[in-house]
Description:
This protein is an alpha+beta fold. Helix content is 24%, strand content 33%.
Amino acid sequence: MPAFSNRLCCVFTLRKLCWNSSARSRHLMSDFISLLPHSKKDVKLDTKSDRGVINEVAEEKGCSSVLFFEARKRQDLYLWMAKSPDGPTVKFLVLNVHTMDELKLTGNHLKGSRPVLSFDAAFDAQPHTQLLKEQLAQVFGTPRGHHRVKPFFDHVLSFTLADGCVWLRNYQVVMPLDKKKADPSNVTLVEVVMPLDKKKADPSNVTLVEVVMPLDKKKADPSNVTLVEVGPRAALRPIRIFEGSFGGPVLYDNPEFVAPNVMRRLQKQQAAGKYKAKVQQKAKRRDHEAANVMPRSEIDDVFRSS
């Protein structure tokens, strides 16, 4: 059996505490492992800053690519996609996660089959998107002839670049056969029974056991291909691209990226601003009523009983 250099090592960290990661993040990692039959899963890492240990784990597993899932504050999931040991490394923020169990879609494909990788034309527009395309192709591309991989294609992994994110979708390829009705004139005898006599077989005593009328099956029409979504779904927002494996000089820094903590702080400030405006409006109304007192009318007591 030949040695395969295109292997994948999946490592998942929970930052020392088991409750630091949501169940959806763990299920997403399980879905990725099921989509990549040549992958190897490792135990949780107990590290915050020293990510160089991951290269040692990949070397022990005999892997050339690493997917490192990092969960923070039980709601933010980061994905490090690296080529070990020389790099490069891409750090993503994972958004809009929907797992296979959550979606309950009708699509289904054989586990362990090879995927067809489909990339959007926008990946060829800029140098950093070209690097993203090559990185995704090397990580999600299943090697040919691997002992865990089925030697055929029945699903498509689609990567679309839109709104500054890489949108990941998985589709089943459905190619219906064009079956026509059986031709009654095309009859084939499958089995003929000639009962033996103790002395001699009688050729005239023939019994037809089974008659087959084959169907006229044509080849599948490539133009009549249907894609049925299987899952999972995810949006990967690139943050930085490093030259080395989990470190080194920064090749690309996304200027449009805003950290989730900053987004949550701005949302809280916006909500606090609405409450502050409401309090100021009430105080302004009280000051206005105190400065503009209505004069007493002579007929205010007309209908009051004495």
